[in-house]
Amino acid sequence: MGLFDLLARWPLLRQVKTGDATALGETAMSERSRSLEPRTARADRVVKSVCPYCAVGCGQDVHVQDGRILDIEGDADSPVSRGRLCPKGSATFQLVTGTHRVKDVLYRRPGGREWERIPLEQAMDMVADRVKRTRDATWEATDAHGHDVRRTLGIAHLGGATLDNEENYLIKKLFTALGIVQIENQARI
């Protein structure tokens, strides 16, 4: 390759030669930049989601390939955010896929002085067992007047504002089916 060929590959000389003062066209391209494509181009599907950070409920598009998340972007179809995400929402991909993500739970046994790490699955099983035990132990089929109430007052639920309407609806249905009547949401308080 001669000196002229080498200089012809330099973007500034291509700009001068073609009159591309802004360098937004072909003169700014290199072989590498021509081969680049967005991470989302390889996605086999896009799953609609909601940002988990605050009560605004910005829409997100989760780009997935072979069951693995490639990228998370703002959902342009969302009437709430119209494709825009705040810095926290933009970092959701790192939250979901980052190596720093916590995959276990800190647990301190009754009477214990130290925290121990247990797998998330074990913690979920422990919560389910405790909900069942508490519900069974505090179940009221009738009240003091003999009226059917089929409820438990031994469990209450306080929801968070990061949940969207659909998630709150499902939680309300679940807890009502369990006979829990003390159900509130932080977004309303």
UniProtKB/TrEMBL annotation:
A GO BP term, please? anaerobic respiration
Q: Which residues form a coiled coil?
A: none
Provide this UniProt record's keywords sorted from A to Z. 4Fe-4S, Iron, Iron-sulfur, Metal-binding, Oxidoreductase
**InterPro entries, sorted:** Mopterin_OxRdtase_4Fe-4S_dom (IPR006963)
Gene Ontology CC annotations of this record:
cell envelope
**Which coenzyme or cofactor does it need?**
[4Fe-4S] cluster
Q: Which GO terms describe its molecular function?
A: 4 iron, 4 sulfur cluster binding; electron transfer activity; molybdenum ion binding; oxidoreductase activity
The record, for SMART domains, names:
Molybdop_Fe4S4 (SM00926)
Subcellular location, record wording: Cell envelope
Q: Tell me the ranges covered by the 4Fe-4S Mo/W bis-MGD-type domain, including all copies.
A: 44-100
Check the record and name the SUPFAM superfamilies matching this protein: Formate dehydrogenase/DMSO reductase, domains 1-3
Q: Which family does it belong to?
A: Belongs to the prokaryotic molybdopterin-containing oxidoreductase family.
- Official protein name in the record: Formate dehydrogenase O alpha subunit
Record the organism.
Pseudomyxococcus hansupus
- High-level lineage: Bacteria, Pseudomonadati, Myxococcota, Myxococcia, Myxococcales
